[in-house]
Amino acid sequence: MEKKQSKKVLTWKKQWYRFSRNKMSVAGLVIVILVIFAAVFSPFITPYPQHAGAFTDYASANMAPGSEHLFGTDYIGRDILTRVIFAFRNALKMAVIVLVISVPVGSVLGMIAGIRQGTWIDTLIMRITDVFLSVPSMILALAIASILKPNLTNAMLAITISWWPWYCRLAYGTARSISRDNYVRYAELTGGSFVHIVFKEILPNCISPILTKMTLDVGWVIMTGASLSYVGLGEQAPVPALGNMISAGIKYLPNQWWNTVFPAIGIIVIILGFNLLGDGISDLLAVEED
Amino acid sequence: MDKNNNKDIILDIRDLKKYFYMPKGIVVHAVEGVNLQLKRGETLGLVGESGSGKSTIAYNVIGMYEPTSGEILFDGEALNPKIRKRTLKQKGNMQIVFQDPGSSLNPRATIGKNLAFPVKLHGGLKDKNEIHDRINELLQFVGLPEEYAEKFPLSIGGGERQLVCIARALASNPELIILDEPTSALDVSIQAKVIRRLIDLQKELNLSYLFITHDLSLMRNLATKVVILYLGRVCEIADTAEFYASPLHPYTQMLLSSIPVVTEEEEKLRPVKVESRGEIPNPADMPAGCGFHTRCSRCMEICKTEHPRMREVSPGHYVCCHAVEGRIVESEKKD
Amino acid sequence: MGSEKNTGFEIKDLKISFKVFNGELKVIDGVNIKLNRGERMGLVGEAGCGKTTTLKSVLGILPKQAMLKSGQIMFNGEDVLKFNSAQMQKFRQESCAMVFQDPSSALNPIFKVKDLMINGMRNSLNTKDKSWEKEAYGRAVKALGEVMLPDPKRIMENYPFQLSGGMRQRVCIAMALATDRHLLLADEPTTSLDVTIQEQILHLIHKLSVEKDMSLVLVTHSMGVIREMTDRVSIMYAGTIMEVGDTKDVLENPGHPYTRALIDCIPKLTGDGVAEGIPGRVPDYLNPPKGCRYVERCPKATAVCREEKPQLVECGPNHMVACHNFGR
């Protein structure tokens, strides 16, 4: 028992070593942890949690960043730091929901097409994917969101629809190359069922690239969500979102620059953090020979 | 063929042809009419350079490819060319060990899990302890300690991985194992270990091997019968002792004389130095006549136009060569 | 450089470690190799014995994690390990060439053979002269002819993937030899090729090294290849040299148990059956044995073998062996 325990500790140590060899991925991890922490505990750590919603305090409107309001206040006196942190919360919520739906759908479809390559299933799935991929995902999401009612749910729906084909493509390529590996051939030759081959042989070996892309995509989904809300198709005021904060603040440029600059920095930080972390995760998940 | 003889033959390949149809109307003649028979408990060595069709034959037998024409009989029973139409028992009776031990095992599953799959599928075992015992038994067969079940394929050496592959092949109690260059990626010291294990297992479990290799010195120590392939056709077949004592086909002689050997005694066994020249032609663009005539030192006019027939030069020793045939005809005339 | 004749090439007490998460892998532990100009030396051992690492250290192409602990690599009286990057570049372009195991990954598939070869000569020719490309082309064609490739001018217009494995390896050799070199490092140049092609390539390397008075270090795991190709051989095990001597002598009278075992493992044409193989595997480089590194696999190991690292001692004319049991 004790031996097993220490072995586990050793593997963790080793994994950490592999991850931390690249200092940038450690930086990414730190940023992501801070962002997630801020998002989860935003009601407790923000200085003015009540400013997250519809709140007006014209007396302290348009204050420049200072000791009382670190990031300054907006045109109706709400603390921008508070609102940026609450916007993180909304942005992360959206990213998680979008990815939780689009990743499994896309990957399973892609894997099936990849294993059954050359058959009608492959053609059907991959041609539909191609149609979706032929339009840039941002424009597709904009198009879908603009038909629907402008609210958060529909924005997430729009992004999800434009996002799954990427996972389909990724899983397709990975599954295709794995299905040429000898262990999959062996499973087929010795009589393994389709379900066994998909879930026991191919899926575990597809997870690494999918997980890596997922991490990278958190940033991009947030970016797309911010774009939608910037043009008024996502989260509606007074709920804080990075996009609508920027679009609302743009009128006050350049004098009250803090209205736009801080939410924009927020987007940059999130994307940067998840991208750096994604690199680290891909190092970590690579199968390495000892 | 009398009935008794038939029962002995576990694998019978009859006039197997496999063509690959490529874009632009190119047809690759990978296997061009091969007849082979493997007796129970024996080892048939398929030897040839890359592009000779040796692996293609094996993949047709195991069901990875569908033959273009010809029949494959296992235990006197014709096998369906489509793998999905074969019965589970047929699939279990015949197993394969691939060349590259790196990609033969699922890298994300432990060795135990890799072995558990065929154990459950073919052994019909459900109970966890039974499966565990069977896995240990299989590891024991190949001489690996029980702890290996907990390890991951990439954390063990290439030779050990190949032993695990052999253990996995044994899980379904097969009668025939196809060994597709199982040791060509390994060091000689490891190769010796794996080969020893294979020889012991063959005796213990009365296995038949279809052994594919390019290593003629290895075949000398392992095979009952050696088959030389060139461009999808058989050049020469003979029992091992006979084969090495009097290799007749010019290609066989070229192969033998190009083996780098380590001792004086071996050097004496090599045929008179035949300098190897040229490369194996592209199977999509086969030369007319005998496929080997472009590299042959004894090439005659007839070789360029007509493919030689297979001829039995002594009991069990077949050669497919105009030059050899000519010599035999001559000596028959003298008699 | 060519004026100092017969200075040869020498690796002195080379020690290299690799940094990993829980310590250092002491992979190369005191390698000594010496060869004279025009001599052909074989380097044999199992996979993971540091053969390739040794060659890479000569060309300065070790991975980032590698740490040089000690040693000198002397070439024509200069220490290669002390070269700065410009000198190293010069050394690689003018003096030393390497041929790799896998000819397909050694050639960039997006360039024609012509471009690959001419580019390779860019630095060794006077590029200020406008006609240099013409000269390079001429030399390339000549080099391709020297490696017995039929119709060199056609091959020059081909992409690497249009060539067979044997032809690609010939192109690699031609690239290495298009300009005059004094030292050729060949890392298993024929392992991925068929026997008949292997014979042709080996024959070619041998011929060129004799004609051009070029030293050769040939890394391989095949004793047969060593026997056909080299004058001297070093048997390497776990980053140390176990035995060194004239090839014929070493193969016939191996002094080290490891050499003996390696030779026994080779399946023979005489058909005497298959040996047991060598038990165990290459030691853990994280905590290698304190004494002889072969101790865990050696049937003759004694207490002293565990404690003390054996040194290379003379055991015959021109024949050294590192084993405590020798002469006992």
3D architecture notes:
The complex is a heterotrimer of chains A (290), B (335) and C (328). With 290 residues, chain A is mainly α. Chain B is built from 13 helices and twelve strands. In chain B, a hairpin with a 2-residue loop joins strand 9 and strand 10. The model of chain B has no long low-confidence stretch (mean pLDDT 89). Chain C contains twelve helices and twelve strands. Chain C is 33% helix and 23% strand. In chain C, helix 7 packs parallel to helix 8. Chain C is of the alpha/beta class and 328 residues long. Chain C folds into two domains: 183 residues, 3-Layer(aba) Sandwich (Rossmann fold); 77 residues, no CATH class. In chain C, the strands form two sheets. An eight-stranded mixed sheet of chain C has the order 6-7-8-3-9-10-12-11, with helices on both faces. The N terminus of chain C is likely disordered. Chains B and C meet through helix 8, helix 9, helix 11 and helix 12 of B and helix 7, helix 8, helix 9 and helix 11 of C.
Question: How would you concisely characterize the structure shown here?
Answer:
The complex is a heterotrimer of chains A (290), B (335) and C (328). Chain B is an alpha/beta fold and 335 residues long. Helix content of chain B is 36%, strand content 22%.
In total, the number of strands of chain B is: 12
Q: Stretches of chain C where pLDDT falls below 50 for ≥5 residues?
A: 1-5
Mean pLDDT of chain B: 89
Largest sheet of chain C: 8 strands, mixed
Number of domains of chain C: 2
The neighbouring-strand order within the major sheet of chain B is 6-7-8-3-9-10-12-11
Structural class of chain C: alpha/beta
Q: What is the ordering of alpha helices and beta strands of chain C? A: EEEHEEHEHHHHHEHEHEEHHHEE
Distance between the termini of chain C: 46 Å
What is the fold named in CATH at topology level of chain B? Answer: Rossmann fold
CATH homologous superfamily heading of chain B: P-loop containing nucleotide triphosphate hydrolases
Oligomer: heterotrimer
What's the CATH topology label of the largest domain in chain C?
Rossmann fold
Average pLDDT, all residues of chain C: 86
Strand order of the largest sheet of chain C: 6-7-8-3-9-10-12-11
